């Protein structure tokens, strides 16, 4: 907000603003707290025109962006302050939008306290003579405060550390993460994607009322959404307008869930905008249960409201007026497993902006087109951009040309070939390759990785290039071709299946420990798969897929065929986790993984209960044994179950041996009780609509009481010992 203190005659209640470049004057009212319409560009030579045509020169170098008009885009608020003994008035530019309670009810007339020029704050006395000249200063209202709280304006170092400890942000979820260790490892190639980036930046910079607060960039797998999200985040970080960023990635622990989404953004907000930190701290202190509340509540109290409060006045208000709104970048929203929370996030975000259209905040979101996202983001509150419409052939050509030039400079085999045969690849071959790739950068990158693969000693890049032209467009052919190179090696299937189904990436040593094999055996399988799997330089860093589409490929039988990873492999992983947990291992990556994700593996078994139980269904006494385990209020050991049912302990053990993934079965003779590993198994077995022929009816309890009564009368305990 800005400009001079304006003078106008009390007899001129309806002056107009005019400008040399504006032919249509805009009406202005100088009544107390009445809105005036104005333009949103720098205008140092406005004149205030009264009804008697008296021209009063004044200057407006920047107008407030806090309130809008449908045609003129902005609302400029004045307050008339009568002067004793003078027929003129001072008009005080206000940092409040018209219509607010604060603006309407505050009738106390105050003199303007300060005018801030570019060289610092000066008292109004020293700026008085600027009223009829060109004053390029910023007008402060007397009640304005640069910071929202009294006392310390920012959190101390200790307080910031405490806030981080309380919020527990995910350290590798933002654009600043190590992309090789925490995929996606995507970045725009220099000189590419300029058009779509320019369009996104223009949207984020705009302060027009009708411009949306949310832009959704969508497209198919591998078209470069993550790379563009990174480019936008970096660009707005340079401009000091990035509030935060969150890059989802499937099967990457909490990065594939919403559980720490709000707190991670809140920590980034506190770091990017220190003025917001006191509001975040206040919310956490005022509501001890906030960090365990719903996603919507956390986003409101820890992100939206603190940013709104911090940008209402002072430095941040002036910053948004000068530079534009703040931005939050969300990439890969479709890779979040918590679909209901994703829908809640989108719905609440749009509702917040509907009620607070003037908050200087934008959301840039990228994802694939999935129903639970598309149904909510297809709204007139959201700007849609299909990245397919911005996939330039020239961008792919630039990328491939540069990659080949770099490879030729360091590959002696290619250099020797070029010296004898001339240019490689030929212009025709390169054009065919670019046409074959289409607009997919991930396909282009993967194809080039296949052509230039340094680990492939069986053929040369010149021999591999023609093969790529025969691969079907898309990644499936490339995945099939690459995986086939290691398929005959020992433990290939277990290693690939483990990578596909882990809830969080493990290092080479961790994969080996989980599978009970040596680290070198894991490396031997993965070494020829580096075109699609990132292998770190040491055994302690996580092995990651170059793109999440590989996991989708492996878990879709119609696409991966012989490389299909069935959901039943969760049974094996769950058993291995249980065995290692029982051993009491600690201090390793696997021990940490089991602590954090064992329950998730158990949950993954729920759809597999019918298949697992069917493995033992034809064994003698199966139904009685399962019913007993399900309905007993106190679990019994194997011998106790055998005595209760009047059968041999070995028969109980044989049934349970095939159920180790879902039932904790001790050795015969031990007093350790047989127990279900997860309560969902009992829910499944006692719900007829879910369990079908495996249903355990409650009437079985009558039989158990009768059997137990007989056992007691015979003087035999359920533990196998005499009373």
UniProtKB/TrEMBL annotation:
InterPro entries hit by this protein: NPHP3-like_N, P-loop_NTPase
Residue ranges annotated for the Nephrocystin 3-like N-terminal domain, each copy included: 211-368
The name this protein goes by in its record: Nephrocystin 3-like N-terminal domain-containing protein
Keywords noted in UniProt: Repeat
Pfam family, any one: NPHP3_N
Source species: Candolleomyces eurysporus
Repeat as UniProt keyword: yes
